[in-house]
């Protein structure tokens, strides 16, 4: 399975901060925002990942992440010229996806407590649902009594459930042709909700509830960015563990060896981040996230 990390857009909700830097490169406590969704894909066992960003930000992502070899991964980069909708990622990434299934994660989504490793090659589409206080702000999934999907609505005025569809999606290879056939919505975007509705029409959409006790944060506003930083800071300081540590995830997934992890850690000693990575080699039984 391939992975796509969508880190485009103009980040207008984070202006003026996002005028000079991609919002996905802004810090969430001790790491760039992009580390968190990247760690989620890697934690699901995916090590071939396409990072879609803007033309002006591409070089900064390449400088930060390189080709992925240091993490035992293969990273490629592509440009979304205009923010034409989430589903356009499958059109931009068509050549990268090839004949494979694909997972898509939004670059401003942070997950903790669920590794999503149970989704291998889906026959259709798999989305994830998370309970929220105000479902009117999200795409909303409606379940029947047997927990089968009845419908999905985008930002409904009167939501039929309190389960929001999070920014992580798994699809079979049909998603490319589905996305290419979509008509832009009235707001001019190729909507991911329309992709999900097409899978639902075919009887091939499954919605899984995010594991109980797990956390999902959308970090696309100033308030939610601050909340996410507070969450990571408190959790890391309380437990001594790190959230969204891509080096650790690569090591625990077996993408890199002990020696590889040591090489990554040594140049980072002065920040304390490297000390954490080196300590993993002495405490390999630390809880995996």
TrEMBL record:
Give start and end of each Nucleotidyl transferase domain.
Answer: 2-232
Q: Which reaction does it catalyse?
A: dTTP + alpha-D-glucose 1-phosphate + H(+) = dTDP-alpha-D-glucose + diphosphate
Any one GO MF annotation of this record? metal ion binding
Q: Does the record's keyword annotation contain Nucleus?
A: no
Keyword Transit peptide assigned to the entry: answer is no
Ordered alphabetically, the record's keywords are: Magnesium, Metal-binding, Nucleotidyltransferase, Transferase
Write down the EC number: 2.7.7.24
Q: Tell me its cofactors.
A: Mg(2+)
Q: Which Pfam families match?
A: NTP_transferase
Domain of life per record = Bacteria
Any one GO BP annotation for this protein = hexose metabolic process
Family per similarity comment: Belongs to the glucose-1-phosphate thymidylyltransferase family.
* PANTHER family membership: GLUCOSE-1-PHOSPHATE THYMIDYLYLTRANSFERASE, GLUCOSE-1-PHOSPHATE THYMIDYLYLTRANSFERASE 1
What is the stated purpose of this protein?
Catalyzes the formation of dTDP-glucose, from dTTP and glucose 1-phosphate, as well as its pyrophosphorolysis.
Protein name, as recorded: Glucose-1-phosphate thymidylyltransferase
- Source organism of the structure: Kribbella sandramycini
């Amino acid at each position: 399975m391939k992975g796509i990390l969508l880190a485009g857009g103009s980040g207008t909700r984070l202006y003026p901060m996002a005028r000079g830097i991609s919002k996905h490169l802004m810090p969430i406590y001790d790491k760039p925002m992009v580390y968190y969704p990247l760690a989620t894909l890697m934690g699901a066992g995916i090590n071939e990942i396409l990072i879609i960003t803007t033309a002006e930000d591409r070089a900064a992502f390449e400088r930060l992440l390189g080709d992925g070899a240091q993490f035992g991964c293969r990273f490629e980069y592509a440009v979304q010229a205009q923010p034409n909708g989430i589903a356009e990622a499958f059109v931009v990434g068509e050549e990268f996806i090839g004949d494979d299934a694909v997972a898509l994660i939004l670059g401003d989504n942070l997950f903790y407590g669920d590794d999503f490793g149970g989704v291998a090659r889906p026959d259709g589409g798999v989305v994830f649902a998370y309970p929220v206080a105000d479902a009117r702000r999200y795409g909303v999934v409606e379940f029947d009594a047997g927990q089968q999907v009845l419908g999905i609505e985008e930002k409904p005025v009167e939501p039929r459930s309190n389960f929001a569809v999070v920014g992580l999606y798994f699809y079979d290879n049909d998603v490319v042709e589905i996305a290419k056939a979509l008509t832009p919505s009235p707001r001019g975007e190729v909507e991911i909700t329309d992709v999900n509705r097409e899978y639902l029409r075919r009887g091939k959409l499954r919605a899984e509830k995010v594991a109980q006790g797990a956390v999902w944060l959308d970090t696309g506003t100033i308030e939610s960015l601050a909340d996410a930083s507070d969450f990571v800071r408190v959790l890391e300081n309380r437990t001594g563990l790190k959230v969204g540590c891509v080096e650790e995830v690569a090591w625990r997934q077996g993408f890199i060896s002990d020696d590889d992890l040591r090489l990554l850690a040594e140049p980072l000693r002065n920040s304390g981040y490297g000390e954490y990575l080196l300590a993993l080699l002495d405490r390999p039984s630390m809880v995996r996230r």
